[in-house]
Amino acid sequence: MNTMMAAHPPTPARPRVTTEDGVAAYIAETVPVDSLVAGGYLAGHDGRLIAQQLRAPQLRRAMAHSVCHTVQPDVDNFYQEDGEPDTDWQQRRTRTVRDHCTVCPVRAACAELALRDEDTVGVRGGLAPEKLDRRLTAETTRLERARAADEQAGEQQRARIAAGAELQRLAGQYLGTSGKPEKRLENIENIRAAARHRDELVAAHRLSAGWTAAA
């Protein structure tokens, strides 16, 4: 047996994905958000499927590329005014969707973020409040899972930040200080343990995002 292969087995190939949801999940895991936007992957039907696979921070990052962010249209165009007749509001929001939402490269991400946040008051992602409400009801189970995954991702991110801060604290406190050799060795081991913990968290995050361990 080849000893190199025995010591370093090849990384198993990812299973082939054939369903739309599977393809969307693979793209969301492996393509950076900015590249998704540049490639037009967060607009239209395909964009809706991919946006559903993204975590809330990724969706918010995508919004930096939105028409609302880059052009900054009048926000009032996206909301019905107090006392405004429904027919007037329908005509006005149709123009808003035509002029802004249909050309927005992240309209699917915008709609998904509105659903995650349960923000269905105005036009979001080219969808009227009534359509957002219908989707909010129809996709309750999926959205609950997505919010739970968002919370878990947030906890993991906070853990990585805390681990990095602890490593910096230990390094600043112990490196270069004088003292007994035994104490210095103990301090150095504490720093190494903190570094290992941080690296383990980062490696787990990379693997969960579809990266290889060596990335």
TrEMBL record:
Every copy of the 4Fe-4S Wbl-type domain together lies at: 67-134
* Keywords associated with the record: Plasmid
Superkingdom of this protein's organism: Bacteria
Q: What is this protein called?
A: 4Fe-4S Wbl-type domain-containing protein
Source species: Streptomyces sp. F2
Q: What taxonomic classification does the UniProt entry list for its organism?
A: Bacteria, Bacillati, Actinomycetota, Actinomycetes, Kitasatosporales
